[in-house]
Amino acid sequence: RQYDTLDRISDVSGLGQLTTSPLGASWSWGGADRLFGFTTKAQLGTAVRFGYIGGRGAQPPGGGGDTSSQWRLGTLTWGSTADDVPGASVTEPPGTVWGQFSFGWRGTEGDPRDGAKLGRGAVDALQGGGLDLFAGMGWSWVYDAGVRLSHAIAGRGDVQGRASPTRVDSFQYEYGEGDELERLIRESEGTIAELTIGAQGRISHRNGHPFTHDAVGRRTEDDRFIYQWTWRGELATVTVKDNWPDGKVS
Q1: Does residue 84 or residue 111 have the better pLDDT?
Q2: Could you write out the DSSP letters of every residue in 103-148?
Q3: Residues with Cβ < 8 Å from 228, sequence gap 6 or more?
Q4: Is 23 exposed, middle or buried (0-12, 13-18, 19+ CB in 10 A)?
Q5: In the predicted structure, residue 112 carries a pLDDT above the cut 50
Q6: DSSP character for 20?
């Protein structure tokens, strides 16, 4: 492993036991600890590139928000550098694009809404010769007057938070007087999850099924999973229950 002068990881190298191909990856950083990209060393050269609104890297179509959004994450591009020319800039998309997300933000500096993410759009990579792998993985997020998430709409997504005509699914969230989440509605299936809130705002029941926590508040069991933690507070294992309360089987 290698680190730059600011103690940020810059390179990991090695050789696999089953292949002579090099293993590892390299990272490229900019100012303010912004990650511009990383590239694996295997033959395919899998790469991720990050673009920042009004700054370096690919820009989101139609912009990503007002002036307060400058230098926020604007795009995330996956692809391969196998066909890149030597010395290609890490602030440019890889030579072969598999898919790209764009991000939109809202709010103004000093406003409590600042930083609310409006959407994650799946850019139509087919127009650029890509594979469009992210076509149904975008999101649009809608907030209520209290800047609480009220709707999440899955599909191609939109950086302005508008509902996509190609929506895949949508979810609605309802809150109590103390801003506690009380109800989740999956609109495509018409399913409703009623949440009961317990100590310190933690969920104690979901549709009557208990959620348990350890002495320091970490969840140990819910209606779908069993969790185990290390003494450092790290999640060690997650066990999927055989039967879920909605009738689905793992």
Answers
A1: 84
A2: EEE---TTSTTTT-EEEEEEE-GGGGT---TTTT-EEEEEE-TTS-
A3: 220, 235, 236, 237, 238, 239
A4: middle
A5: no
A6: S
Dist. CA 73–CA 152, nearest whole Å: 20
- CA-to-CA dists, residue 62 to 11, 40, 49, 160, 217, angstroms: 34, 31, 19, 9, 43
The answer to whether the beta carbons of residues 54 and 71 sit under 8 Å apart is yes
Q: Which two tokens stand for residue 194?
A: 């009623």
Q: Residue 116: its pLDDT value, please? A: 66
Structure-token match 């990991």, residue found = 12
pTM: 0.70
**Letter for the amino acid at 29?**
W
Residue among 16, 35, 33, 32 at smallest CA distance from 24 = 16
Question: Which three-class secondary structure state does DSSP give residue 16?
Answer: coil
What is the arithmetic mean of pLDDT over 62-91? 80
Cβ contacts of 139 within 8 Å, gap of 6 or more: 119, 120, 152, 153, 154, 155, 157
Do 174 and 185 form a contact (C-beta atoms < 8 A)? yes
Let me know: does 69 contact 59? Beta carbons within 8 Å.
Answer: no
Q: Which of 6-20, 110-124, 137-151, 214-228 has the lowest mean pLDDT?
A: 110-124
pLDDT in tens, 126-157: 555 556 677 778 888 888 888 889 999 988 88
Here the tokens at position 21 are 């191909």
